[in-house]
Amino acid sequence: MTLFDTLNGALMTHASAWAFDNPAARRTTLLITGRSGGVALVIGAVTLAQWAGDHFPAAALPALRHVDLFPVGFGLTGLAAALFVGAQYWARREAPDAAR
């Protein structure tokens, strides 16, 4: 998970630099940042539910007790990469001379 978190951070750094150079790409950066914030909230909620299930068995949701978050890192990194590649394609299609 640490490796993919690092890759996600590197991708976000590149996306932010791209948005800084290209003001039209700021909406893409907002989309990717929003995705990161939403994912952080979901992972935090699942982790909290798992902790509550370990310490307060009656308070936890049984479906969340055995969720493995390790594969989620692969999916999130793939989603971030797909969003970034799609944004690059979209920006080049909208303004061929300005996005390069």
Write up this protein.
The protein has 100 residues and is mainly α. It has one domain (2-94). Helices cover 75% and strands 0% of the residues. The protein has helices at residues 2-21, 26-55, 70-94. Helix 1 packs antiparallel against helix 2 (26-55) and helix 1 runs parallel beside helix 3. The model has no long low-confidence stretch (mean pLDDT 76).
Task: Write the topology of this structure.
Layout: H1 2-21, H2 26-55, H3 70-94
Features:
0% strand; 100 residues; single chain; mainly alpha
Percent of residues in helices comes to over 70%
Gap between N and C termini? 33 Å
**What's the mean pLDDT score?**
76
Give the oligomeric state: single chain
Summarize the structure.
The chain has helices spanning 2-21, 26-55, 70-94. By secondary structure, it is an all-alpha fold. α1 (2-21) packs antiparallel against α2, α1 runs parallel beside α3 (70-94) and α2 runs antiparallel to α3.
